[in-house]
């Protein structure tokens, strides 16, 4: 049997099989092309024409595995344009979220500086991530006093920030 006849008989089936395996039609077509190149080089090893389909399937599967391994070793990710656009929009959203968060933190810090002295002192230390008992020790206050001031300061901040948002 001629290789062109074998190609015509088995090409579509092999592309279908390999595409199901690699989930990429272009890569599947490349694998099948490579499969037929290998088959041509080793056509003298075919003993029975009845087993050509199975023989080609084995070559195609092994070739697909080799190509997948090669792609992974390059550490590159093949992406089509739609995936790149989606990834770019996701990254832009992350940047926008980070900017919004930075602006919010800046607004909160400004509002803290606008609080009365007793509330400002506890909140500045709270922002520096001191624990409540550490703030009490630092300011030489009772723990209950610090908790009350933090609570009241937060309520004032909420009111001021809501007024700022609605304005």
Describe this structure in words.
This protein folds into two domains: 72 residues, Rna Polymerase Sigma Factor, Chain: A (Orthogonal Bundle); 86 residues, Arc Repressor Mutant, subunit A, CATH 1.10.10. Helices cover 81% and strands 0% of the residues. Helix 1 runs antiparallel to helix 2, helix 4 crosses helix 7 and helix 5 crosses helix 7. It is rod-shaped.
Any idea what the shape is? rod-shaped
CATH architecture of the largest domain: Orthogonal Bundle
H/E series: HHHHHHH
Mean pLDDT: 82
Helix fraction bin: over 70%
Quick structural gist:
Helices cover 81% and strands 0% of the residues.
Features:
single chain; 167 residues; mainly alpha; Rna Polymerase Sigma Factor, Chain: A; Arc Repressor Mutant, subunit A; 2 domains
Ordered list of secondary-structure elements with their pairings:
Elements (H helix, E strand, L loop, with lengths): L2 H20 L2 H17 L10 H23 L6 H33 L3 H11 L4 H8 L3 H24 L1
Helix pairs in contact: 1-2, 1-3, 2-3, 4-7, 5-7, 6-7
């Amino acid at each position: 049997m001629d290789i062109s006849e074998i190609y015509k008989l088995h090409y579509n089936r092999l592309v279908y099989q390999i595409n199901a395996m690699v989930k990429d039609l272009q890569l599947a077509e490349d694998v099948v092309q490579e499969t037929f190149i290998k088959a041509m080089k080793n056509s003298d090893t075919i003993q029975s024409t009845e087993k050509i389909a199975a023989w080609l399937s084995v070559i195609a599967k092994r070739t697909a595995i080799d190509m997948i391994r090669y792609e992974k070793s390059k550490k590159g990710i093949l992406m089509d344009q739609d995936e790149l656009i989606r990834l770019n929009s996701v990254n832009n959203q992350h940047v926008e979220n980070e900017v919004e968060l930075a602006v919010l933190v800046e607004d909160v810090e400004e509002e803290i500086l606008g609080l009365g002295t007793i509330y400002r002192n506890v909140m500045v230390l709270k922002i520096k991530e001191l624990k409540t008992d550490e703030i009490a020790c630092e300011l030489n206050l009772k723990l209950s006093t610090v908790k009350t001031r933090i609570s009241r300061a937060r309520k004032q901040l909420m009111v001021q920030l809501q007024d700022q948002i609605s304005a």
